[in-house]
């Protein structure tokens, strides 16, 4: 007599990001592999129990257990950038902007952003910019 185990298959995978945590509610953003973006509330205590805090990234997988769906959440570690790599990034930005001087006469500052590095893939640096007035911009 053999054991029957349910067929396990992944339904969907998302890269998640915790925008903010307000009390018991985490406001998260989920990006699918198909390019769809979902935003909404999630129980903060579940993320905190996994070591996921505000402004952290995570991987969310929906798994089909043959009639039931299980959600698996895994933290994505923050990327630590060395002082040397920070210097290189500043240098590359300076080269890309050339002689651009935002203080030259006639320029108006339209928006101010705070930013941080999400991840680095090869020569590409992915950043999230937080508008000081209007929220996230990717």
What would your notes on this structure say?
The chain has 138 residues and is an alpha+beta fold. The protein folds into two domains: 9-76, OB fold (Dihydrolipoamide Acetyltransferase, E2P); 83-137, no CATH class. It is built from two helices and eight strands, in the order βββαββαβββ. It has helices spanning 44-49, 83-97; strands at 9-22, 25-32, 37-43, 57-64, 69-76, 113-121, 124-131, 135-137. A five-stranded antiparallel sheet has the order 3-2-1-4-5. Strand 7 and strand 8 form a beta hairpin. It is elongated. The protein starts with 8 loop residues before the first strand and ends with a strand. The model has no long low-confidence stretch (mean pLDDT 81).
Helix content, binned percent = 10-25%
What's the mean pLDDT score?
Answer: 81
- Report, as a whole number of angstroms, the end-to-end distance: 55 Å
CATH architecture of the largest domain: Beta Barrel
Strand order of the largest sheet: 3-2-1-4-5
| Largest sheet features | 5 strands, antiparallel
Task: Please provide a brief summary of the model.
This protein is of the alpha+beta class and 138 residues long. The protein has helices at residues 44-49, 83-97; strands at 9-22, 25-32, 37-43, 57-64, 69-76, 113-121, 124-131, 135-137. The chain has two domains: 9-76, OB fold (Dihydrolipoamide Acetyltransferase, E2P); 83-137, no CATH class.
């Amino acid at each position: 007599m053999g054991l029957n185990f349910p067929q396990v298959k992944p339904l969907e995978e998302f890269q998640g990001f915790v925008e903010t945590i307000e009390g018991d509610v985490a406001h998260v953003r989920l990006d699918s592999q198909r390019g769809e973006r979902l935003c909404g509330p999630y129980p903060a205590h579940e993320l905190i129990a996994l070591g996921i805090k505000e402004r952290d990234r995570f991987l969310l997988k929906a798994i089909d257990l043959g009639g039931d769906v299980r959600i698996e959440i895994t933290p994505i570690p923050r990327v630590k950038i060395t002082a040397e790599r920070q210097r290189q990034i500043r240098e590359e930005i300076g080269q890309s902007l050339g002689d651009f001087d935002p203080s030259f006469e006639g320029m108006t500052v339209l928006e101010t952003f705070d930013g941080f590095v999400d991840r680095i893939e090869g020569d590409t640096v992915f950043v999230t910019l937080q508008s000081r007035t209007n929220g996230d911009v990717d």
